[in-house]
Write a structure and sequence with these properties.
The chain is 34% helix and 11% strand. The relative contact order is 0.21. It has helices spanning 10-24, 27-34, 74-80, and strands spanning 50-54, 69-73. The chain contains three helices and two strands; from the N terminus they run ααββα. It is α+β, with helices and mostly antiparallel strands.
Length: 87
């Protein structure tokens, strides 16, 4: 039952995805991603290999803001999916 959830409305998802596109272009995101550390596995990666991960996924009602977005390697982000916790 831990993966059961009611998805956020399509309007919310569309709005937050648009906000995440803007956030990806910000100086803050370039600095965070520039450190090259995955939030989940703590391994070092080239910045261009890191993706933006929402700790509370947009599909679950999460927001695209600095408190909810972290750099993540593709493997960790894919494994986490729409879940709230990685491990």
């Amino acid at each position: 039952m831990s993966d059961f959830f009611v998805p956020a409305s399509p309007e919310h998802q569309k709005k937050e995805k648009a906000k995440s596109q803007i956030l990806r272009k910000s100086l803050w995101w370039r600095q965070v991603k520039g450190r090259g550390i995955c939030h989940h596995c703590h391994q070092k990666f080239p910045p261009e290999e890191l993706t933006m991960d929402h700790l509370i996924p947009i599909a679950r009602g999460g927001k695209s803001n600095k408190k909810n977005c972290v750099p993540s390697c593709k493997e960790c982000n894919t494994e986490k999916g729409h879940r709230l916790i990685h491990w």
